[in-house]
Amino acid sequence: MRPPLPPRPPQPAGPCPLARQFWVTAGACEVVTVGTTRIGVVVRAATDSRFHLR
User: Fold this and answer.
1) Can you name the residues that pair with 30 across neighbouring β-strands?
2) DSSP per-residue letters across the chain
3) Cβ(48)–Cβ(33) below 8 Å
4) Is the dihedral of CA 46, 48, 51, 54 positive or negative?
5) Which of 6, 8, 19, 24 could cross-link 40 (Cys pair, CB 3.0–4.6 Å)?
6) What is the four-CA torsion angle of 28, 12, 19, 51, rounded to 10 degrees?
7) Which residues, including other chains, have CB under 8 Å from residue 53's CB and lie 6 or more apart?
8) Model pTM score
9) Are 39 and 19 in contact (CB under 8 A)?
10) Which tens digits make up the pLDDT trace of 3-52?
11) Separation of CA 36 from chain center
């Protein structure tokens, strides 16, 4: 028998906190509706070099 899995951490409430947690960044977020699903899109990252063009 395998030991039980550890409990999952709580999920963020709402699309924008989830998007910020996924991208591990802060910044401006907009909620976009795709079909019947609302998703959070980080549109301006705060101090995150992954989004700067070189």
Assistant:
1) 41
2) -PPPPPPPPPPPSSHHHHHHHHHT--EEEEEEEETTEEEEEEEEESS-GGG---
3) no
4) positive
5) 19
6) 70
7) none
8) 0.55
9) yes
10) 998 888 787 788 888 887 887 777 788 999 999 999 888 887 666 666 55
11) 18
